[in-house]
Amino acid sequence: MANSLYICCSQNATYVFFMNWTRTQVSIVAIVAATSFMGTFLISSVNIALPAIEKSFGLDAIKLSWVVTSFLLATAIFLLPVGRWGDMVGVRRIFKIGVLIFTFASLLCGFVNHGILLIILRFLQGIGAAFTSTTGPAILVSAFLPQHRGRVLGISVSAVYLGLAFGPFVGGFITQYLGWRSIFHVSSVLGILTTIIAFTFLGSDGVAEDQSKKIDLRGTLFYVLGLFALVYGSSNIPDLFGWLLMAAGVIALVVFWNFEKSSSLPVINTKLFTQNRLFAFSNLAALINYSATFAIVFLLSLFLQKILGLSPQSAGSILIAQPITMAIFSPVAGRMSDSVQPRYLTTLGMIMCTIGLASFAFVSASTSILQIVIQLIWVGLGFALFSSPNMNTIMSSVSKTQYGLASGSAATMRVIGQIVSMTIATLFFAVLFGKQTVDMVPSHIFQKMIKWGFLCFALISSIGIYFSYYRGKVKREG
Questions:
Q1: Residue 311 burial (CB count, 10 A)
Q2: What is the distance in angstroms between the CA of the first residue and the CA of the last residue of the chain?
Q3: Residue among 128, 94, 97 at smallest CA distance from 208
Q4: 404 DSSP 8-state letter
Q5: What does each C-alpha distance from 448 to 234, 300, 357, 369, 382 come to in angstroms?
Q6: Among 299, 305, 306, residue whose Cα is nearest residue 453
Q7: Alpha helices of 320-361 — where are they, by DSSP H?
Q8: CA geometry: angle at 222 spanning 216 and 226, to 5°?
Q9: DSSP letter at 477?
């Protein structure tokens, strides 16, 4: 992890010199970037190891998708409550707890002997990720002047994409030569180092303004039950039970929203969505973008290994093209959003993502590796143009006292979008694959899933173009 910190810091050394950061500011950026790297490194490396995990435990295609979905579901469930909790007791304290939980779960994942237990521990990992990902942006923006906000968020996003970039390549290498369990062993070592750094350098919070208040547990319960029912129900489609469970989940989420509107201590400030167009549209754009793009690596990892017959290491070497592009251009886009209205950058990014997703619908056994790499670079550039400016917009649309809530809301949109993306993939698995493993599915059926899945994602992404452009303008602060 020390090497990761050095990489993140050295790549952005020009920013540090240009802005004359203090030692505390450098430490904060390094710590938040390190945890961002660690989380996405594990996510992307597990994606490339899924075929190996499937063989170890004999998981069917639907259960295999839950190795990814359980992590995302836990993250989504806890992001909103943690955002509110962070405003109450201090974001640095919550951040440190999250690092501990994530590291402990990573350690246990490396020794599991049953597929269901791995899914449960991945859920625990997701809880730790929720604690760090929702408080990280709040810690960053509170430590820097408004005119530097886009730059530091761009660096944080770049670290996320560095994790995504190294994950497939390193994960593929580890899986092929050391076994998939070693991915979790490496992650737990990185987690221990990050924990030491966070507790040593991050510091403590000041006195929280809202520490005497409590979280509305009644509304939170409906949120948790609704989200779980919606996601679990999708894995039981096309059975009637699955449809009923999804319907119950939607109803529970509607009840949650109504509770929040009338609550004196809401987990989420609904007025930000109903009275702040800039905030609402930016969050909706993020939700749509992640819903359309997250399953790319998941589906292409299976495609490259099943249809093209590539090894985990070779597949990871190809998939690295998209996140490397994101890592290179995210700080640039974040810096541009400090002087150019972010909606122009985000709209261009959404258009590029839509075109790229549509192109993936036509990959086949005859598609060249070079063509796939070019498509990944195209989508990566589009996502980079969207992500940092969009996050800058969200954080700039609220007051300083709402940073924890805003970062929690933005992170929730991201993770729910990722869940939606995986849910759509799971729906196609359930309808086309049934209870078969990916290895057992005929190639032409798998190819059909790839085609219609990516066309569906392209349609979703096209809707996001509207919200991205018509969100309004960011009012610049001094």
A1: 14
A2: 36
A3: 94
A4: H
A5: 20, 13, 15, 20, 26
A6: 299
A7: 321-336, 342-360
A8: 145
A9: P
The first and second tokens of residue 291, run together, are 């819903």
Question: What is the band of 476 on the pLDDT scale with cuts at 50, 70, 90?
Answer: low
User: What is the three-class DSSP state of 345?
Assistant: helix
Three-state DSSP class for residue 239: coil
Distance CA 380, CA 388 (A): 13
DSSP-derived letter for residue 179 is: -
Structure tokens at 210: 């809202």
DSSP 251-314: HHHHHHHHHHHH-SS-SS-HHHHHH-HHHHHHHHHHHHHHHHHTHHHHHHHHHHHHTS---HHH
Contact 437, 58 (CB under 8 A): yes
Cis peptide before 238 (omega within 30 of 0): yes
pTM for this model (two decimals): 0.72
Tokens standing for residue 23: 């030692």
Answer whether 132's CB lies under 8 Å from 106's CB: no
Residue 347 dihedral angles phi and psi, to the nearest 5° = -65, -45
Name residues whose C-beta falls within 8 Å of residue 59's C-beta, 6 or more positions apart in sequence.
Answer: 53, 67, 115, 437
Alpha carbon separation from 306 to 309, 433, 446 (Å, rounded) = 5, 14, 9
Report pLDDT for 214.
63
Q: Which of 203, 220, 184 is nearest to 103 (CA)?
A: 184
Q: Extract the tokens encoding 245.
A: 């469970």
Q: What is the DSSP letter of 60?
A: -
CA–CA dist 50, 179 (Å, integer): 11
Which amino acid makes up residue 257? W
Dig out the tokens for 64 from the structure: 């295999």
SS3 content of the chain, % helix, strand, coil (to 5): 80, 0, 20
**Residue 95 corresponds to which amino acid?**
F
Question: What's the pLDDT tens digit per position in 155-206?
Answer: 776 777 677 667 777 888 888 888 889 988 888 888 888 788 778 777 676 6
Position 472 scores a pLDDT of 76
Task: Give the closest residue to 461 by CA, choosing from 382, 384, 392.
Answer: 382
> Measuring CA to CA, which residue among 72, 81, 389 is closest to residue 265?
81
Tokens encoding 452: 């219609």
What gap in Å lies between CA 218 and CA 226, rounded to an integer?
A: 13
